[in-house]
């Protein structure tokens, strides 16, 4: 069984992962729709830039976030000067790092779902007098919702497993930024903490497994719905 401190780590991980997923969701969907439905110069470059966090070392991503959101960074300085907000060494910074790392997976899953919507249905709706926004809200979005949710759940799973960018950007502060992966890393540095590592690892694997199963079920549902159409 987990003690109170360990349950706190789990709760913090769920909070960071949930906030990261919710904040990243509209951005990921907008980018997915842009890549799936709009032709524009430099589309390949934009696509590659979105997927960079998948291939560059997470430490590099964390360092870039530190440059951008640090007190002397363009975003961090603006937040500090105008709103008195700082994300360094805060759980909000951990959520930002997790969201950035999850963004490519969410965009990829959502883009596939949007591209699977038959454009002939959209064109038929337009010929019947429906405007672009009505086509989107009544046809494209409802048909792609299961895939969008699958991408969101996948992003949540990635967020609760984020380590490298988080520890580089907001450090490993117990009770503030120490999510499950960071707590496991800290426990590995302590002699005789094998039982703690086992407990936290089992929780981490269990949460990720549930999220991945949910994402797969939603993906299959999306495929069946589009196949029926």
- Output the helix-strand order: HHHHHHHHHHH
In whole angstroms, the N-to-C terminal distance is: 48 Å
The assigned structural class equals mainly alpha
By CATH reckoning, the class would read Mainly Alpha
CATH superfamily: MetI-like
* Structural Rg: 20 Å
Average pLDDT number: 90
Strand content: under 5%
The name CATH uses for the topology is MetI-like fold
How many domains? The number is 1
Q: What's the total number of strands?
A: 0
Q: Percentage of helical residues?
A: over 70%
Question: Under the CATH scheme, which architecture would be assigned?
Answer: Orthogonal Bundle
Quick synopsis:
By secondary structure, the chain is mainly α. The chain is built from eleven helices and no strands. The longest helix has 35 residues, at 194-228.
Describe this structure in words.
- The protein is an all-alpha fold.
- The protein has a single domain, classed as MetI-like (MetI-like fold).
- It is built from 11 helices and no strands.
- Helix 4 runs parallel beside helix 9, helix 6 crosses helix 8 and helix 7 runs antiparallel to helix 8.
- The longest helix has 35 residues.
- The mean pLDDT is 90.
SSE blueprint:
Layout (H helix, E strand, L loop, with lengths): L3 H34 L5 H8 L1 H4 L2 H12 L4 H10 L7 H25 L3 H9 L4 H29 L3 H7 L9 H9 L5 H35 L1
Helix pairs in contact: 1-6, 1-8, 4-9, 6-8, 6-9, 7-8, 8-11, 10-11
Distinctive features:
229 residues, mainly alpha, 11 helices, MetI-like fold
